[in-house]
Amino acid sequence: MIPVARIMVVDDEKIVRESLSIWLQKSGYEAVPVEGGQQALQLLEEDDWDILLVDLKMPRVDGLKVLYKALEIKPDVPVIIFTAYATVETAVDAMRAGAYDYLVKPIDPDVLAIKVEKIVERQKLAKENIVLRKKIDSINRFDEIVGNSKPMRNLLELVGSVADSDSTVLITGDSGTGKELIARAIHRNSRRCYKPFIAVSIGALPATLVESELFGYEKGAFTGATHMHMGKFEMANGGTLFLDEIGEMDAKMQIDLLRVLEEKAFYRLGGNREIQTNARLITATNKDLKSEVKNGVFREDLYYRLGVIEIHLPPLRDRGDDVLLLAEHFLKKYSEKTGRKKKGFSREAMKKLRSYGWPGNVRELENTIERAVVVGKGSMVQVQDLSLNDDLVAGAVEPLVSLKDAEKRHIQQVLDKTGWNITHSARILEIDRATLYKKIKLFGMSRPKKQG
Fold it and tell me: What percent of the chain has pLDDT over 70?
């Protein structure tokens, strides 16, 4: 399909300007016939145009005057001059003056079509380059990552240094620390930034579907496979594939993934054609994979292949005043999103934010601030708006608890508040339903029986 362009056709001869305009309109362009140079200059001032087709010889205001004025008003608009008086001198004069091109009457529609299409294509590429330059200008920043603590400065320095390599990266850290955010930062700061970033949560997929999601399948590969399905490795080719919760991958898929890393190729389910992949692999887990390897749950060879570069995200409780920076960031975000303007936090609220243990890390903090913005009455967030567990505030009774107990307590609180609505609870916790069910089973939690 030919891209739409606004073209002004200027000629004092009615039959010429109207026939050219009609022909251009039939070719998919928006062409406007204009009867002379004076009207052309007026329209040029009033509206936007992509191309000007201007007759050289016109009464009062000729084509060269239109060209000069067009270059003054809108120098980026290409001007094609045409005339029946074809001489070397007039052609040279027009081109020297800044005309894009020069045509001789009678105009060959096919020749004009080629010139117009080239201009439109050039303009399209120029617009795409502007977008790409803006993207490139922004990729070397970490605008989405908030924090100025020493652990975060060290982490971002590491991210910047490894971004442009093709080595696999294993991101470790507690739930809610922002592992996918770091993976995206690595991608944005790499030479792969203009290629796809594909994220998959292994824990959110039934084990039987992981293979088809990662490698795809051919039509007829199994019952219900009515069409070919492209897998995530294929979709991420040239870009980055991020596999979250890699510790949830079963033994068979671990073998298959190791083979892809070694051979840089795979087969779709039901297929016999080898597909090459150039996707960079970044994985993440909140598990201790070294312990999983010792326990025989995770393959040692795969662990070392995944962790060529290992990045550990510190828990929020170890990031000092980053808590307050993040709180301000989320306050601004949700104030703008909800239209409930909040100026800041009371002194007591800031003290509690700083002293709280944050077992759910950045994710819990974001949910807390969102809730405070929604339920808070005044212009300042008060301590009572935060709805935090006082048992996890430093200095309270039993302030030190294991991470597992803190996570269990946090999940229990959310489940109790939602009446054990799994969908709602998973949304608040920012995990998928499958992961929440696994946590419930892991912690031996059960829904309280109704009284009576």
Answer: 91
